[in-house]
Specification:
single chain; alpha/beta; FAD/NAD(P)-binding domain; 3 domains; seven-stranded mixed beta sheet; five-stranded parallel beta sheet
């Protein structure tokens, strides 16, 4: 909703009534793992005047419905369920007296960092923030984005919706299940539905590789003898009142169904696990530049967007595999927002563009701001390969200078790749215009 729409609501909010603007140093939008971690880091760094806004009735985000274990191994060095992981940040936020306002929907952010929000308790409010951290997370891609032919019966759910129905509401979506897509949520729901007594007929994946973590393929499919059909897709859905079956087919290199490979699978439920989309509607109203690859904000290594004082972190920036990495990234964003409020100025820093080369997609951050003087900390670059690569070389090159060219045993789109730039590498980048990442079968620059 833009400024014009808000002004039609009885001339409330931002319609020239600046006396109603509430000044605040920092607003964090979202109280999931990203927003909580960013708020905790900002408060630890000395930001006292901050507020977290969350549209759901409870903090914790998607973790509240992720009752399986596997969280926290990197950050806490122990295995936790989603709610257990979330509770640790919720508890720390309370101990730090960080105000988290739930049941609050943010309607608009302007490039001037004026934030408009509405809630039952406080009504319509507008804040003039000095800094904003975007931590809205992501949403699932719906059926409408897939153009699957067939009727529109009951029994078609996104995997995340099915997870909420089973884990939080106690409803069983169906008994005979086909899953389209092999994202991590879909893989986890294959196991969950099986444990609840359903029969998962197959997990059908369009690509020749899974888009989920390998550990989830093993623990959620192979351990339960659920077939993973790679290079297949659903080409038809049967049923009127309720799904009665789906037709699948093998696809070629062009991802089109191959005639003669059609196969019908009887089922009463189709779960969709076909990708996640960063929730960047508010980022657009704030004037933030978005990447066409990640569909998240374009940021520098301090997670600052193209709008000064507006930062982005977590799945609203780029979709992560592990919540541990979301928290790690978001803490850096919280620290950076604190630095911005306390007067940190990177205008004198050397700016280096990070460019996706052959085989590389969606590197974050997209720009490196390298400060003058001695450096003591490195920077992590995160990206996904455009397909599966075995025993290829990842090369980072600036002009004629090769910073890294090392062999990777496997690179797959289902797992985020991370490469760390050391302080020495960063100092070597001063004076360079761009840093290019490439994946090749042979070592480059030798």
């Amino acid at each position: 909703m833009g400024r014009g729409a808000l002004c039609s609501l009885g001339n409330w909010g931002m319609c020239g009534m600046s006396e109603q603007l509430k000044p605040i140093d920092l607003i964090i939008i979202g109280a999931g793992p990203a927003g909580l971690a960013a708020a905790i880091a900002a408060k630890r760094a000395g930001v006292m005047d901050l507020l977290v806004l969350e549209r759901e009735e409870e903090p914790g985000g998607i973790l509240n419905q992720c009752i399986h274990n596997g969280f926290g191994l990197h950050r806490f060095k122990e295995e936790l369920t989603g709610p257990e992981y979330a509770h640790r940040d919720i508890r720390e936020a309370r101990e730090l007296a960080i105000p988290v306002r739930t049941g609050t929907m943010v309607l608009d952010i302007t490039p001037e960092k004026i934030v408009t929000a509405v809630s039952r308790e406080h009504g319509l409010e507008t804040f003039r923030a000095r800094a904003v951290i975007l931590a809205m997370g992501c949403r699932e891609r719906p059926r409408g984005a897939l153009a699957i032919p067939g009727t529109r019966p009951a029994g078609i759910f996104s995997a995340g919706t099915a997870q909420k129905l089973v884990n939080m509401m106690g409803y069983m979506p169906g008994r005979e299940v086909v899953i389209l897509g092999s994202g991590d949520i879909g893989l986890i729901m294959a196991r969950r539905m099986t444990l609840q007594g359903a029969r998962v007929r197959a997990c059908v994946e369009l690509m020749p590789y899974s888009s989920g973590l390998n550990r989830n393929i093993v623990q959620c499919l192979e351990d339960y003898d659920i077939p993973l059909l790679l290079s297949h897709t659903v080409v038809d859905v049967q049923g009127r009142g309720r799904v009665s079956g789906v037709t699948i087919a093998r696809v070629g290199d062009d991802r089109r169904p191959i005639p003669g490979t059609y196969q019908q699978i009887p089922c009463d439920t189709l779960l969709l696990s076909v990708g996640l989309i960063p929730e960047n509607e508010l980022s657009l109203t704030a004037g933030v530049e978005l990447s066409p690859i990640t569909q998240g904000a374009v940021v520098n290594n301090r997670f600052q967007t193209s709008v000064p004082g507006v930062f982005a972190c977590g799945n609203v920036l780029h979709v992560h595999d592990l919540v541990d990495f979301v928290s790690q990234e978001s803490m850096l964003a919280g620290q950076a927002a604190a630095g911005y409020l306390f007067g940190y100025d990177d205008k004198a820093a050397a700016g280096v563009a990070v460019v996706d080369g052959q085989g590389v997609r969606g590197t974050v951050p997209q720009r490196l701001m390298i400060p003058q003087g001695e450096l003591t900390e490195g920077i992590d670059l995160m990206f996904r390969p455009d397909r599966v690569y075995n025993h290829h070389y990842l090369t980072l090159q600036a002009g004629d200078q090769v910073l890294i060219s090392r062999r990777r045993r496997i690179l797959t789109p289902g797992e985020m790749a991370v490469e760390r730039l050391t302080p020495e590498m960063l100092m070597a980048l001063r004076g360079q215009a761009e840093l290019r990442l490439t994946i090749t079968p042979d070592k480059q620059g030798a």
